[in-house]
């Protein structure tokens, strides 16, 4: 018996790279800084046999840069 698939026939890829650094000003005060770049892509083919989608394919390529910083004070 044929049935509807929950997922499209797709190829997807995800990658990321990050850097981080830490600087100790003295014995009690530490500063941290980090950055990350994420990239993903998907190339999907949709089957309209069971669901009347208004499209048959999706091609998405996107990326984002995120960052963080922090201070640690030891008592």
Average pLDDT number: 92
What order do the helices and strands follow? EEE
Structural class: mainly beta
Overall 3D shape: rod-shaped
Strand content: over 45%
**Poorly predicted tracts of residues:** none
Radius of gyration: 22 Å
Write down the oligomeric state: single chain
Helical percent range?
A: under 10%
Read across the widest sheet, the strand sequence of neighbours is 1-2-3
E-strand count = 3
How far apart are the first and last residues' alpha carbons, in Å?
68 Å
Largest sheet: 3 strands, antiparallel
Number of helical runs? 0
Characterise this structure.
The protein is rod-shaped. The chain is an all-beta fold and about 80 residues long. Strands 1-2-3 form a three-stranded antiparallel beta sheet, with no helix packed on it. It starts with 8 loop residues before the first strand and ends with a strand. The mean pLDDT is about 90. The chain is built from no helices and three strands.
List keywords for this structure.
single chain; 75 residues; mainly beta; three-stranded antiparallel β-sheet; 3 strands; 0% helix; rod-shaped
